[in-house]
Amino acid sequence: MTQQRTRTGKLRKGIIILPSAFTLANLFFGFYAIIATTRGDFIEAAWFIVWAAIIDLLDGRIARATRTGSRFGAELDSLVDAVSFGVAPAFIMYTLYFSDGNWSWILPLTYLMAVVVRLARFNVEQAGEPKKYFHGLPCPTPGIVLATFYPFSQTPLFQEYLFSMPWARINAILLIVLSALMLSNIPYAKVPKISLRSTNGVLTSLWIIVNITVAISIPSYYFFPALLAYTLWGLSKSVILGLLERLPEKDPLLEIVDSEDEETRAVEYGGFASMETEQTSIHHQPRKMESQR
């Protein structure tokens, strides 16, 4: 019995460690993307950020499947995401397009700050896990968009038809737009799950399989256009369908902060009221004693 309990305990510890191991693998890929960028290997850096995004998608699902999710895991995941989808893509863009000017580095810094604020808001607002959809663009998406632009720019299609465009300026605008979308309240769909229980589930599963097949077959052609299309689709759907009119008038995070402030004031007022009651009872106590006399 003792040996069985020991084995069960070790197995339980292994299961608990598993999501954090995936999260640290995410950090490995993100950090190595930075190393590859310093060596001038921008294509390898891009694919390492893609791998980081895949690992980031898996670690949360593993934690939910094994019921080993924790506040520690959520905080660790946010810190790692700040490196993999904030620092690494910003450094790639800085090295490629913004290292010449005196102040052009502010644009990648702006993007990095948006990622950090986005992650902090996500943890407070949605408790580290989206409920029905993301409030604002999830940070792995712009990270992949920025990182995979270089592999896409090396394709024959790009070299023949798009090479002459002012991509330094376009990427500067892209950094600003992606930063704004991350901090917006525009709803973005979650990654769907594979399911065979309904017709919609089967069609969704087929759609996922087709995307995975294309991504594996022609990654340089797939990731940048596909993730950019996802970004623009969320924005255009909000505008076309009038969802912007139904969005909260103010950031849900501000509502949380306001509610916390109200709770704090209530506690403070309650404490003051209780002190006043105690003082009143003490003040009236001698009178009761005198009356007893």
Architecture blueprint of SSEs:
Elements (H helix, E strand, L loop, with lengths): L1 H37 L3 H24 L5 H27 L8 H21 L6 E3 L4 H8 L1 H5 L2 H6 L5 H17 L3 E3 L9 H19 L1 H22 L2 H4 L5 H41 L1
Antiparallel strand pairs: 1-2
Helix pairs in contact: 1-2, 1-3, 2-3, 2-5, 3-4, 3-5, 4-8, 5-10, 9-10
TL;DR of this structure?
This protein has 12 helices and 2 strands, in the order H-H-H-H-E-H-H-H-H-E-H-H-H-H.
Poorly predicted sequence stretches spanning 5 or more consecutive residues:
271-293
CATH superfamily of the largest domain: CDP-alcohol phosphotransferase transmembrane (TM) domain
How much helix is in the residues? over 70%
* Overall shape: globular
Beta strand count = 2
- Which strand-content bin applies to the residues? under 5%
> Biggest sheet, strands in spatial order?
1-2
Structural Rg: 26 Å
Total count of domains:
2
Number of helices: 12
Task: Considering the chains and any ligands shown, give keywords for the structure.
single chain; 293 residues; mainly alpha; Four Helix Bundle (Hemerythrin (Met), subunit A); two-stranded antiparallel ribbon; 12 helices; disordered C terminus
Note down, in words, how this protein is organized.
By secondary structure, this protein is mainly alpha-helical. It has two domains: 2-246, CDP-alcohol phosphotransferase transmembrane (TM) domain (Four Helix Bundle (Hemerythrin (Met), subunit A)); 248-293. 79% of the residues lie in helices and 2% in strands. The protein is built from twelve helices and two strands. It has a two-stranded antiparallel ribbon. Helix 1 (2-38) packs antiparallel against helix 2.
